Amino acid sequence: MKYPKLHPDDWLNSRLTVEERTEVDYYINHAGWSLKRVSEMYGVSQMTIKYWSDADFREKDILRATARIARKMENPEYKREAFARRKIRITQRREQDAMYNAWVKHAWRDRDRQILTATQRERQLVNMHRYYTNNTEKARERGRRSYHVKNNNGFRQFMNRVDKK
To answer: What is the pLDDT of residues 86-96, one digit of tens each?
Structure first.
């Protein structure tokens, strides 16, 4: 299950819905209305109307906004405050959003029930064997005895299974 993204109508900074954005594009580019007339009709600024009706302006505005944020992030105090605000928003969403909570529960269930095909299982076993041998050699090189575990039954079974294939 993919992470549930917010619908554009639910964005906090959104003044226009998705339908209104397509209407704005139609009024400006096809019907020939002025920015002022359309902005008064929807109760937003002329820059908002231009943003949603002119693709070139939108791309340039995104680049300007990215550069402005990068300049602001150079200030360590602003950066600290921005990350603190982001952390608060994420925490609030975790507490309040039912979609997020369902996603978390579903993701954990998927992780626990990971169903592997035969080829994936073989690759996983080979990778586990490779990891085990590499770490054993490294531990021996360092002179440590950490590769010896009191209960080696699991690894013995694992090694027997790998050797059979």
So the answer is: 989 888 877 88
Q: For the chain, state the CA radius of gyration.
A: 28
For residue 33, which phi and psi values (nearest 5 degrees)? -75, 160
- Half-sphere exposure for 156 (CA within 13 Å, toward CB): 6
Separation between Cα atoms, residue 117 and residue 126, nearest integer Å: 14
Two structure tokens written together for 155? 């690894």
pTM of the model as a whole: 0.53
Which segment of 25-29, 74-78, 108-112, 152-156 scores lowest on mean pLDDT?
108-112
Closest CA to 17 of 7, 29, 27, 26: 7
Longest alpha-carbon distance in the chain: 80
Q: Find the helix or strand (DSSP H, E) in which 34 lies.
A: none
